[in-house]
Amino acid sequence: MDLRTLYLMFTLISGVRAQDLVVSQPGSTEATEGESVLLRCSYNSTSRPKVGSYWWVKDPGQVAVRNTTQEFMGRVIAVKDRAFLVDRKADIRINDLRHYDSGLYRCAVKLPGFREAFGNGTYLRVVKPSAGISAPPDNYMVLIWILLRGLFYAFGIGAVALGTCLYFEKTKSLNGASPSTW
């Protein structure tokens, strides 16, 4: 038996080929408590898979990220099989985020003929919703400007009217007319 035949038999029996499977994830993402987040994961392989699987874990503790896990019960949505096999995406969406969802999430992909491959992980930071007063929209700034301008004109008109009344009162009192004869 020659060396080529031995190699071919070993490859067929073990199911391991000299192919690569690489899983990629963004390093970090941030989302607000109560909202949802899309955790992205994609993979590249040297073959076009017809079947395969993927899963997510949260570190520390390697907690499975799926709807049946108590921590994530009913809050996880996975991509469709077509997106996984054709678009090579293994994304998940976590809804109704909670502060304890912060942590490192790792995506794993398994395809026939390859060893399972893990991404480097995406660190999710869940922040509390902002309770501070936000800046008013530009429309409010225009309304405030118009209001202040109107108040300025009203004050000006009132000041002129008061000044005019005082002037005529003083002028009439100097001319000897009493205010009751006006």
Describe the structure.
It contains 3 helices and 11 strands, in the order αβββββββαββββα. By secondary structure, the protein is of the alpha+beta class. It folds into 2 domains: 3-127, Immunoglobulins (Immunoglobulin-like); 138-181. Strands 2, 5, 6, 9, 10 and 11 form a 6-stranded mixed β-sheet that branches. Strands 3-8-7 form a 3-stranded antiparallel β-sheet, with no helix packed on it. Strand 9 and strand 10 form a beta hairpin. The radius of gyration is 37 Å and the shape is rod-shaped.
Summed up:
The protein is an alpha+beta fold and 182 residues long.
Supply the helix-strand structural class: alpha+beta
Question: Looking at the chains present, what oligomeric state does this protein adopt?
Answer: single chain
Strand content: 25-35%
CATH-assigned homologous superfamily of the largest domain: Immunoglobulins
Please state the second-level CATH architecture of the largest domain.
Answer: Sandwich
Mean pLDDT across residues: 83
Low-confidence blocks of residues:
6-18
* Number of DSSP helical runs: 3
In CATH, the topology of the largest domain is named: Immunoglobulin-like
Largest sheet: 6 strands, mixed
**What characteristic shape results from the CA principal axes?**
rod-shaped
**How many β-strand runs?**
11
CATH class of the largest domain equals: Mainly Beta
Q: Taking Cα atoms only, what radius of gyration do you get, to the nearest Å?
A: 37 Å
Distance N to C terminus: 133 Å
Number of domains: 2
Elements, N to C (H/E): HEEEEEEEHEEEEH
Protein name: Natural cytotoxicity triggering receptor 3
Keywords: Cell membrane, Disulfide bond, Glycoprotein, Immunity, Immunoglobulin domain, Membrane, Receptor, Signal, Transmembrane, Transmembrane helix
Pfam families: V-set
Organism: Pogona vitticeps (central bearded dragon)
